[in-house]
Every structure is written in C-alpha cells, then in structure tokens.
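ligand=magnesium ion
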Amino acid sequence: MKKEIEKELYKLTHNAVKGAFTPNDFEGICKEMNVVKMYYDLEFDSDGYRGLSDGDEDPSKYRLFELYSEEGVESGIIKKYTFYFETNEYVHAWIEFRKDVKEDEIDEELCSFLADVIYILISRQNMRTMLDFSETHDAQTGIMNLKSLGAKYMQSIAHYPEVEYVVLYANVKNFKFINDRGGVHLGDLAIAKLAQKLQEFIREDEGVCRVGGDNFAMYVRRDNLDVILNRLKIVQVDGLMGLRNNSHRFSFRVGVSDTDIREFGTKLEEASTACIVGKTILKKDLVVFNMELSEIISHNNQIIAAFPDALAAGEFVPFFQPKVNMHTGELLGIEALCRWLHNDSIIAPSEFIPLLDRKGMIHDLDMVMLVETCKCINKWQKMGLKVPIVSVNFSKKNIFIPEIEKKIITAIRDNNVNTSMFEIEITETAKESEIGRLIDFVRILKENGFKISIDDFGTGYSSLSLIHNINADEVKIDQSFIRKLGRDEKSLILIESIVSIANRLNMQIIAEGVENTEEGKMLMKLGCDNAQGYYYGKPVDFEDMTRLLKNPDFKALV
Ligand code: C2E
Ligand code: MG
Ligand code: MG
C-alpha cells in the first residue's frame, strides 16, 4: 500500500473511533486514490432494486452514506462492493474513479480493503446513531418519546417563562377497528401516520410524543389549545390500504391539564386521569382535569378494593322486577337485578357494574348473582309458588371465560333448578371479534334449555343486522327510546322497525323502562305488547317479590 494511503487510512480510522465522520475525513484518501465519489447505498431484493441504478428515481434518495464527492468532476470506472446481506437487504459500497484512471491503475485489493474498513466504521457509527435515536424517539412512529417530550417541555418553559402551556393526553377512539380490519400491520402504519399528522399540528416550542399503544401526550400553548382540540376532532389519514378509500378519519378522546402546576409529570398524570375518566365514566371526548376527577378515581379504587370481601360476605343480592304483558296483565317473567347491600345502604349497579366490567371482575359477580337467584327460585318453589321465567344479566365479558356455558349450567344444576327457568340477558355487540363467540354462546345455552334476550337493544351499533345472526328469543328495546317516545319521530320509526323485524324473526319483544300508561299505550300501538318498568313496579327484594308472586294482579292496559 502506498505510504500516503496508509497514513490516510490510519487517520480515518482514528477519527472514526474518536467521534463521528465528516466528509472531510474522506477527502485525503479519495484524493490519494483518484476517487471522485464514494458512497454506500441500500438494496432490497423483494420489491425491486432501490439502489443507485434504479431507473429515473433520484438515486440520492436511497443513498445510505455519501462519503465523498468532488464537485463537477466526471467519473470513469466505478467499482461496487456488496456487503451486508440478510434475506433481502444489501449494502453496496460504490467507488467512482476519475475519468482518466485506467483499469490496470486500480489496486483491486486495496479498494476492497478500503470498502471493508469503511463499512465497519460506518456500521459502528450507524448503530450509535440508532441507539441515540431510540433513546429519544418512539421506534414505531419516529416521533419523540415521553422522555424527550418532558425535556423539551422544560426547555420551552425555561425559554418562554411568560407563556402558559397546557398538557394533553389524547387517546385514539376506536383504534381497534383498524387492527380488526387490517391486522396489526395496518395498525402500525396508521399509528405512525397519525403521529406524523399530530406533529404537523404543533408549533416549534410545543411538543407531541407517543406514550404507547394508541395514546399520545402533547403540550401546547394555552392560546393554541382550542385550535388543537378542534383539529383532534377529525384527523384524516390516507394511504391505509384495505380500508374504504384507503383512508380513515380518526378522532381523539382528550384529557387536558390546565392547572397551575408546572411540573410536567404531574400535569401529564392529570391529563391522563381526565382522559380515562372521560372514556370510562363521563363518556365524554373532552375532559379538563379538576380535583373532583381524582375523587371519582379514588372512590372507584375503594369499590374495587372492597369488592372481593363484599362478594364473600354475601353483600350482593338480587332484586326482582316484573315483566308484564300489557294487553292481558299477565306476569311473563321477572328480571334479577343486582344490589349491593353495604353498611345499611343499597348501592345501585350503575355505581359498580360498569367499573367491575372494565376491571375484568364482573364474571365473579354474575356467577354469584346466578347462584343467589337459584336460591330464591328454590325457596319460591318450596313455598309452592308459580315462578315465571327469571332473567339474569350476563356481561359480555363472560363469553370469553373458558367453558362459560358449562359453568353456568353446572351452577344451576348444583342448585337444583332447571335451566329452562332462566333467561340470559346479554347486550348486543358490533365488534367482529365478539360476534362469533356470542353466536356460539347463545347457541349452546339455547341447546341446553335457556332462553336468550338481547338487552338494551338499539344502543349498540350492530342492531338490526345482528339480531338476525343471533338466534335470541327476545329483544329488549332500550329505555332511552321509551323516554323519547312522543317527542322524537326517530324513536317511533326505530321501535316500529324493531317490532317488525322481531315479528318476522319470531322473536318476543319487550320495552324496558315503561313508566306510565301513555308510554304503554303508544308501545302497544307500535306493536310492542310486553313491558318492564316502574309502571308495573320497581325492582324489589326477595320478600316483596314473594308477596307479588303470591298475588300477581296487573291490570290489562286498554
Ligand atoms: P338492565 O339490565 O337494562 O336493567 C334495566 C335497568 O333499568 C335497571 O336498572 C332497572 O332498575 C331500570 N329500570 C327498570 N324500569 C325502569 C323505569 O321505568 N324507569 C327507569 N328510569 N329505570 C327503570 P338497575 O337495576 O340500576 O341496573 C342497571 C344495569 O346494571 C342493568 O340494566 C344491567 O345492565 C346491569 N346489571 C344489573 N344487575 C346485573 C348483574 O347481576 N350482572 C350484570 N352483568 N349486570 C347487571
Ligand atoms: Mg337487563
Ligand atoms: Mg336494559
């Protein structure tokens, strides 16, 4: 090797080990070797060559590293060395010589050695860059990670002490839809594209990062908050193959921290609390943090903590509410509704059922309610009372409990009740991931003598298309429609169509939440004859239901 080249190579290696490359580092060696251009590029096998010789596309786009280029000088012989190769990826080193250099003047061995050495140095530097990047960025989306967002926030408040910043915690609504439709790959792509969009929304001194999953954190100037919130209502993302028009309109559920606290971690905690409470309790897309939210959360935590002991202590009992044929006054059935008897007070299900459902604890409660209801039926039967069919509510979470049908059947048989005494109430679903399982659940229970009722009908999304797939015996029109009867034309139309479809599918139909004769009569006119509601009686305890069963005397509504 020429002494000068050797010296340049030493220098290059030494510099590369000390720190990062600069184009200057290659100048010496390239000049010594009559090289006018040196670069490394990338090739993918499967989807075609994406390296330099790729047709009309600008080749520099795919250049991994341009190490040296002598402006305005034409090249002659070009040497290519291929290195890295893993299934379908290659890295090529390209060395272009001055036009007047002849083949026999090129030291092949030296060129190959040079390409090797430089490749090793580049790989090392590349790895370091990647490590630095992954320290501060989210790998999937390429935007900042939480750690750098916190650091950037500190910089912003230090730079602009007069500016007030608010922190946002934003969760994509119904992101599961994308994964359900297009699989995880589409989900990954969508989240990356969304992240890029969010980044376009913010100003230079503001920041956004992905916290994980479909959650993002942001901080923005207070005077920019409304603009940002508005933009988060609809974010259109294109290029999502497999979806309608290859695009999707996302919207966000947002929690905002606008308190006096300046510390980033606390603000983010407040914003995420607000977002979670919005999603799970308040059912609102925008919630601004205040202390009451913390109280809600601590109240919920108390419920969760108290639940196992309360369950073991028998504090959960069924109350019963009659289902009546309005035409005849006949008692058709009773629904068991859970009550928590705690410290001499009765806690209503709205306080704990949705919470237990979210926390995955509802199955235990539903099984206990089933057994408690069996005990009540036993007692009534021993008293010689005629017991109508009894409805029990089962959360949809149950359908994913292994062998749930067997568990339900065994629990009932162990308590010496016939399965035909029971109707299972379950709410509808629109989720593709649930429909198949729900259909099986209903089928197996029906094969074992149960009746099935679809509760709160009309509040989900699936509605009419679903009842035809699920072979239920009854649909229960949700009480929200009954509330709007007489005021809202849409409710009338909806009830009419539910009735007509249910009739055609041979399903019973019942309205829940009927409170007065007007509602009852209107329903009958629409073809719905059965009702459950305060008009016929509120849910009552075992003793009161016993009295009612001894003497059910509902009047016919005419
Ligand atoms: P649901 O199954 O749709 O039950 C009907 C709810 O409407 C009951 O509320 C009932 O008390 C109420 N209701 C009945 N008639 C009227 C009326 O005329 N006016 C008004 N305003 N309300 C009426 P409740 O007992 O508070 O139960 C609420 C929900 O909690 C139930 O809705 C059900 O989804 C759930 N739930 C109750 N017990 C259980 C249980 O053991 N397991 C599960 N998984 N869920 C249960
Ligand atoms: Mg129900
Ligand atoms: Mg209901």
